Every structure is written in structure tokens, then in C-alpha cells.
Amino acid sequence: VSLTLSGLPTEGDHYIYVNSHEEEYLLTPVDGGRMTLPLDLTRPVLVWIQPLPGTVLIGGGPDVDECESYGSRSGEVCTLETDLHDGVELISGTLDCSGHFIGQSALYGGSGIGVLVRPGSVGARVENCTIGNETAYFAYGIEALGATSAVFSNNTLSHDIIGILMQNTHDSHVTGNEITGDSLWAIALWDSTSGNEVSGNTIEVENDGITIEGVVGAPSSMSNLISDNTITNGTGGILLAHTTDNTITGNDRSGGIRALGIGVNAWPNEVYRNNFHGWSQWGVWSDIGPVELSHATYGGNWWGRACPGPLFIAGVDSNRTDVVDS
Questions:
Q1: Which residues are 76's β-sheet partners?
Q2: 120-150, pLDDT tens digit by residue?
Q3: I want to staple 159 with a disulfide (CB 3.0 to 4.6 A). Which of 14, 94, 137, 276 is the partner?
Q4: Contact in structure between 295 and 272 (CB atoms under 8 Å)
Q5: In this predicted model, what pLDDT tens digit does every residue of 293-318 receive, in sequence order?
Q6: How far apart (Å, rounded) are the C-alpha atoms in residues 182 and 20?
Q7: pTM attached to this predicted model
Q8: Which residues is 130 bridged to in the sheet?
Q9: Residue 277 bridge partners (DSSP)
Q10: For the segment 161-215, what is each residue's pLDDT rounded down to a tens digit?
């Protein structure tokens, strides 16, 4: 199909990409802020715009791989030896930043993607990267669309609008990352992203910590595991919408406005043995009910209350009296 985008920038040249940096469209002031793109909508499509062309390509064979211009390669592993002031597209293999920084000019903060894992990749890894800061941040720190068995570990992401975004990505691991700043979402699992593990991450952002959201109108069994993460402050801790059969356990969510959010078409899910405490408004906000949070085998969650009184008070710790943790 042909899709026309309007309201795009009209000052200076901009570059529009579809799924990867291979498919590029130039937007000029003559276009009047409009661009028509041919898209295959039989599968998820990623479209983004950035003010400068190109990126650093890692993997994909010697004809395209730029690893040795910025670091060294050993087999499938590219190890950076310098900071990058450009985005990266990881075509295949492992990107080990070895602590180096990936950012961009402050003039373009909030645009583009720090590290894009090329759609359809299998086994891609992004490790030990520092992505974004208060001025040189991206729209997405790390983005995976249609990837399988990816690993994002031990990265530090700051101020990117979305820290780590996975769409239609499966059987992947997000572990040991630190995400801070004024991100809208620290870690987002969207669309039919399923079978992934998000564990051991440390999050303190101004808005939402971890969100799992399926396709509106077509809720799906996503079966992701969210475990042993530490989420401090911000608007929301863990949010679920249009998704079922996920397991939320062993997380510590403190401070902030809400600890747990349950949107439409977001039950049943398993939520047990989490520490939810110190929120200012609701322990759990739910758009639906009735909801029984406790697990038949593993019990419920801790809501900051001590014995001998009740450990959860429906309608006080939750926004609805039919949302309970018994």
C-alpha cells in the first residue's frame, strides 16, 4: 500500500528510513512536510525520520561491515574502541561497546535510533554500551523489530525517549541494563512481542518503567517473563495492556505514582512475589475487574503493609474494590 505522512519537518533536508538504513527517502522543503511511502503492511513496519543521513553499519559481511573503522572484530564480535556520534545498525553478530558512548549532536536530540537491530536478525547482541545523555539522546536507545534470540545486556541508557524497545521480537533477553532520565518508557515490549525475559534491570525514569502492550483490538498471549527488576520513582512501574499470560515476579517497585497498571484486555497474567511499596496514588490501577492478583501456588505480593493488619486493602491499595490480592 501507499502511506502518506503529513506534518513532517519543512526546514532543511531530512531522511526517512523504512525498516533499515538501506531503504532511504529524502524529504526536502519542496515536499511541504508530506511524503508518500510504499509499504508492505502484511508484517510490522518501522518508519523513522532523522536530520542527518546514514549510520554506522556493523555486521552483514565484509562488503558492508564498518566495525574496523571504529574498533576491532573477532569472529562475530565487534568491539568498539572509540565513542560514536552517530547511530548504529547492527545487521548481525555482537556489538560490544566496551563502555564507549553512542550519542549524537545536541541539535538533533530526541531523533533517530541509537542501536537498531536489523529486522529479521537472529542472535544479535548489544552489550556494554552507553547510549544517550541529557543532550545527545535518541528517540529509541535500542530498537529491535522482528528479531529473534536477541540479547541486550549491561548497557547504560540515559534520557532516550524509549530506552529499549522491542516490537514483534521473540525469545530474547534484556538483562542487567541501567536506564535513567526523563524517558517516556524505560523498556517497552509492544505488538506481538512474546517469549522474552526482562530481568535484573535497574530503572529510574520520570515516566513509565516496563510496559507490555499488545495490539489494540487483538490481545495476544505474549508469555514474557518480567523478573527481579528494580524500578524507582516515575509515573508507573509495570504496565500491561492488550496482553495475557505474562509472568511478573520478584520485582521491586518503590516510589512513584502507581506501582502496577492493568489496562483493557490485560488479564489473566501472573503477578506474584513482587515488592510494591511507597507509591503516592495507587498500588495497582486497573481498567478492568474483577482481578485476583495472588497466585494459587506462589501467593501474592507485598504492598508495604505490615502484620497484624491486612496486607492489601482493596479500594485503597487498588483503585477498584474488585481488584484484590488475597
A1: none
A2: 999 999 999 999 999 999 999 999 999 999 9
A3: 137
A4: yes
A5: 999 999 999 999 999 999 999 999 99
A6: 27
A7: 0.92
A8: 101, 156
A9: 254
A10: 999 999 999 999 999 999 999 999 999 999 989 999 999 999 999 999 999 999 8
C-alpha cell at 197: 525475559
Q: What 3-state DSSP class applies to 252?
A: strand
Q: DSSP letters of 63-117?
A: TT--HHHHEEEETTEEEE-S-BSS-EEE-SSEEE-TT-EE---GGGTT-SEEEEE
Which residue type occupies 249? T
3-state secondary structure of 272: strand
**DSSP element (H, E) containing 3:** strand 2-5
Q: Any idea what DSSP says for residue 194?
A: B
The grid coordinates of residue 308 equal 497484624
Q: How far apart are CA 222 and CA 214, in angstroms?
A: 8
Closest Cα partner for 98 from 84, 111, 85? Answer: 84
Closest CA to 82 of 64, 61, 60, 67: 67
Per-residue pLDDT tens digits for 216-240:
877 677 899 999 999 999 999 999 9
Planar angle of CA 307, 310, 313, nearest 5 degrees: 145
Tell me which residue of 157, 165, 153 sits closest to 101, measured CA to CA: 157
CA atoms within 13 A on the CB side of 206: 8
Which conformational region is residue 161 in: left (phi greater than 0), alpha (psi within -120 to 50 degrees), or beta? alpha
